[in-house]
Amino acid sequence: MEQSLAPAPAEAPVTERRPPARVVGPLAWLRANLFNSWWSTALTLVMGYLLLRWAFAFFGWAVVHAIWTVPLGPNGQPATNVCRVADPAGACWAVIGEKFRFILFGRFPYAEQWRPALAVVLFLALYAVSAMRRFWRMELVLIWVVALAMIGVLMWGGILGLPFVGQDVWGGLPITLILATFGLAFAFPLSVLVALGRRSRTLPAVRVLCVLYVELIRGVPLISLLFMASVMFPLFMPAGLNPDKLVRAQLAFILFAGAYLAEVVRGGLQALPKGQYEAADALGLSYWKKTCLIILPQALRLVIPPLVNTFTGFFKDTSLVLIIGLFDILTTGKIAVSDPVWNGFATEVYLFLAVIYFAFCYAMSKYSRGLERDFARARRR
Q1: CB burial class (10 A; 0-12, 13-18, 19+) of residue 324?
Q2: Distance, CA of 332 to CA of 94 (rounded, Å)
Q3: pLDDT digit string (tens) for 48-78?
Q4: Which residues contact 16 (CB under 8 A, 6 or more apart)?
Q5: What is the pLDDT of residues 322-344, one digit of tens each?
Q6: Are 65 and 86 in contact (CB under 8 A)?
Q7: φ, ψ for residue 92 (rounded to 5)?
Q8: What stretches of 110-171 show up as alpha helix (H) in DSSP?
């Protein structure tokens, strides 16, 4: 008896359903982190009230009641009494409009200030190119050499029809970027060599020298290094050879940053599993091939957060060059508010400087987090 094959009933289409809002999403995050108990709820409400109150007060001071420009008085000086009448109800941002060129470029000749401005743009472009991983090739070294040479031509001048400008009138943001950029560019390879030398087992003399260098530099404050570079270093130089104080300060920063970065790199080398060293040896690689191709890439990947922490601290430490007569951006800001005409409006200037420092430090932190995510994703694969 033949059996008829009836067609199977069609399955109902499966529709995707979103999870409940109480499980995932912003509401779930708020409930789990800010309103998960009566104590957390009360604390969240109190902190929210205080933050909103402060935010409204700051907005009123910085925007609503702020003075953006001031007229000129009979003597040709800014009539800052307009701001003094408004203070403390509103900020006097007119001081930034009046002093921003001095804050950013120091005593650089007014008619030539386009040159340090262009140098700052070149620095930012150099940072942006260096952050792109597709440029991480040997050609990047050539890009750095060309960019830094162009910056030197812009700052010094003396060629291509540019008037010569001595380093004694440099100041502001270019000084900060020069010290930080050259300091980190030379201190990082120095730190790698010192970290490798400190872990060396076949060269005990090199290991001892590296240990002495790191412990000596880390045992004294940066101010003392700057003072020694400014006062003591010329005494050990041959007659007639006296490097500029900017060069001496740069050398002190390189030595200081190199010691701290060396310990960070050494921590990454110690955190690497021993099997990686044994696997590299099993491949028959030489010491430098093993170090450059296998050990260092993995070790540096592990210490990205402390490396960036050292970079940001070093960037802010450039403000200490005041003690040897160099005017970084923080020093030019202090000098700007010492003008009797604008005396009393330091808050606005320091907020302006804080925004600049925060922008550079936050950019470094944001980029490092992106690198961490990319490298973590590569390890999961």
Answers
A1: middle
A2: 17
A3: 999 999 999 888 888 888 888 878 777 767 7
A4: none
A5: 888 888 899 999 988 888 888 88
A6: yes
A7: -110, 85
A8: 114-131, 139-156
Average pLDDT across the chain, whole number: 84
- Three-state SS for 72? strand
Query: Are the beta carbons of 106 and 327 closer than 8 angstroms?
Result: yes
The CATH number given to whatever domain includes residue 353 is 1.10.3720.10
Choosing from 139, 164, 189, the residue where a domain stops is: 164
Q: Are 155 and 119 in contact (CB under 8 A)?
A: yes
Nearest to 214 by CA among 266, 288, 291: 266
Are 137 and 205 members of one domain?
no
Alpha-carbon distance 120 to 113, whole Å?
11
- Verify that 100 and 148 share a domain, yes or no: no
Same domain (yes/no): 184, 332:
yes
CA–CA separation, 33 and 293 (whole Å):
43
pTM above 0.85, yes or no: no
Radius of gyration of the chain (CA): 29
Higher pLDDT, 65 or 82: 65
Helix (H) or strand (E) holding 171: strand 171-172
Q: Which of 247, 213, 254 is nearest to 233 (CA)?
A: 247
Q: Which domain holds residue 157?
A: 110-164
